[in-house]
Amino acid sequence: MRKRVLVTGGAGFIGSHLCERLLSNGHEVIMLDNYFTGSKENIVHLMDNPYFEMVRHDITQPFFIEVDEIYNLACPASPIHYQYNPIKTVKTSVMGAVNMLGLAKRIKAKVLQASTSEVYGDPEVHPQKENYWGNVNPIGKRACYDEGKRAAETLFMNYYHQNNVRIKIMRIFNTYGPRMHPNDGRVVSNFIVQALRNEDITLFGDGSQTRSFQYIDDLVEAFIRLMDTGDDFTGPVNIGNPGEFTIKELAEKIIEMTGTRSKIHYKPLPNDDPMKRKPDISLAKDKLNWEPEVVLENGLKKTIEYFDELLKNSKYEDTYYRR
Ligand code: NAD
Ligand code: UDP
Suppose 169 and one of 84, 235, 286, 307 were both cysteines; which one would form an S-S bond, judging by CB atoms 3.0 to 4.6 Å apart? Predict the structure, then answer.
């Protein structure tokens, strides 16, 4: 059955892949974005599809439409972008959640929240399971994002219990792939762009902090499966690749795979940078019958190819450095 689906933040890295997948599954997609960190370049290839509509809108303002499902992804996701205007980041998460939940309640749609492993903060439990409450500094530099996303989860659960809204909460761990913003400071895109330009690889701290990197295709599959679960399953559910790497290992891998002349350049570790992160995905395996399939080398290969093409494109500077 063709469903009508709203994707907020659909012009961003993850949202654009999700729109693509929903369209190829035969659904009608309305993509809402204010283009703060997203770009029309990410969705230009979808514009000829008559079942794809674009709406320029800021999710902090109410929005009215008739849809069957809502994927709520609108929120800057990289530290430099979400710290650029921290008050706006909190508003986007919290007011955006209120607006999307209010909409879902009125039109009886299912609504899925793109939450984050950042709700665990700098975790004292490893790997992280959904029942861990986290270790977040509420007044630190990351708080606008972490606490905004935590408050959004609270709102989702409140609308579920109080108003029977059909909700799903997904806690996404570090995800990478084509269409990441080349200049948003996230580690995979940063290292690849630096390597392709033979510039210094900026390694923060001593590089012993860990992350678990998930390729975009695995995440998109999990979105579809989570939305399709029965109404009694709300999550939160961790979605990530449990393969854990130190950031130094990641730098070395990218140096090797690109054959760059770049050297590692050590820089201070930002405040509140989590020292380790790795999802326990047993709940996702059980409830969604899902686990990631793309190993780091294969995902990096595709991502390196994408950035290699992008850097050669004459429109590149114009698209990403004009703002
Ligand atoms: P992104 O920055 O590429 O995409 C976010 C999109 O939201 C952009 O298109 C941006 O323009 C839009 N947006 C921001 N504020 C908005 C507002 N007020 N109104 C309307 N649109 C707005 O980031 P992404 O990596 O694609 O992340 C998408 C979602 O997934 C975010 O909610 C993020 O918190 C979550 N997430 C991402 C990761 C990851 O590793 N990429 C990890 C955990 C959670
Ligand atoms: N990082 C780094 N060099 C960079 C960008 C990031 O060493 O140029 C480190 C960062 O300090 C963190 C890890 O890589 O420990 C992941 O950073 P990212 O911003 O991608 O994601 P997050 O910290 O939100 O997981």
Answer: 235
pLDDT score for 272: 86
CB distance 114 to ligand 1 below 6 Å:
yes
DSSP class of residue 205?
A: T
Exposure b/e, 214-230, CB count within 10 A at least 16 = b = bbbbbbbbbbebbbeee
* Pairwise CA distance, residues 23 & 12, whole Å: 16
Half-sphere exposure of 35 (CA within 13 A, CB side): 12
Ligand 2 geometric centre to CA of 83 (Å): 14
Q: Where are the domains of the chain?
A: 4-179+215-241+278-293
Angle between helices 187-196 and 247-258 (to 10 degrees): 30
Is this structure's pTM higher than 0.90? Answer: yes
26's tokens = 């035969």
Question: Ligand 1: distance of its center to the CA of 260 in Å?
Answer: 30
Q: What share of the chain is helix, strand, coil (3-state, %, to 5)?
A: 40, 20, 40
> What kind and span of H or E run contains 72?
strand 69-72
Mean pLDDT of the chain: 95
Asked whether 89 lines ligand 2 (CB < 6 A), one says no
Instruction: Provide the percentage of residues in the chain whose pLDDT is more than 70.
Output: 97
Distance 187 CA to ligand 2 centre (A): 5
Q: What are the backbone dihedrals phi and psi of residue 78, each rounded to the nearest 5 degrees, phi first?
A: -95, 145
Q: What is the pLDDT of residue 319?
A: 61
Candidate CATH numbers 3.30.70.120, 3.40.50.720, 3.40.630.30, 3.30.240.20; the one for domain 4-179+215-241+278-293: 3.40.50.720
Is 278 near ligand 2, meaning CB less than 6 Å away?
Answer: no
